[in-house]
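Journal club prep, notes for RB
We'll compare a predicted complex against what the paper describes. Inputs for the zinc ion case:
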Amino acid sequence: MQIRNCPVCRLNKTRLKYSVDEFRIVTCRECGFVYLANPIALEDEQHNYERYFRSADLPEYSAASSDENIRGAWRINEQRLGWIKAHRQTGALLDVGCGRGYFLEHAQQHGFIVEGVEISRLAGAYASEHLNITVHICSIEKEFNLTGSYDIITLWHVLEHMHNPRAALENVWSLLKPGGILFIQVPNLHSLKFQLSPAARKWRGGNHPRYHRSFFTRASLHLLLEACGLENYADSHLIYRTSDKYLARLAKRVLNSGDLDSFLDIAVFKEQASMFISTQ
Ligand SMILES: [Zn+2]
């Protein structure tokens, strides 16, 4: 465990918001950001992710998979690519926190030239060996070994895992070509789905503060972007079609509606001030 200052304003003036096992999730009294004050040591982090990827099954990634989770992931990735293709049809795409590379394989099938960044050697090796995708094993928030430049960089549910999301965003920004677009998606602390979940369900699996270190709202994600000097952004709103059942789909639309969406979707444009974005 270590003591951590606010990742946005870097001060250490907090009040406790949640306790989860031994973890303390606090609100910064200076800027309002909600974050994990006592994360696990950085040297233990990679071990944690290796264990995370070792424990999961490895079914084949396809729309017709016998595994419902894989079919759901496929549909989500298809929607993410629809969002990207509303702005860019082709180009060099870097997925940060690419895991086993499912999104990258999907993007490649849509015509993008793809590479990934991943902290887990196991997950990165899967993408390299099974999907033939270039994956850089490194932490984008610390020293990293990338020298390329990209038209599109994606961070799907990654920023909330970072110890230093400001450094991560600044590093990622330096890899984006002029006119490029950064696509960010994070869980939303203000979502109705999160608010309604009982404590035992809020922090299950990958949502546990063993993994998540920042807890974003729309306002606090804007705050972080602006702290990094990234002011040319636009909110979007993806409602995932993850269920074929009408009532479940209806309930999901309600839970995701308006400002109560489960996820925040933001595109940040590099030197494209006049870009127009439609919201869904
Ligand atoms: Zn702060």
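Talking point for the session: Confidence is low (pLDDT under 50) at residues 273-280.
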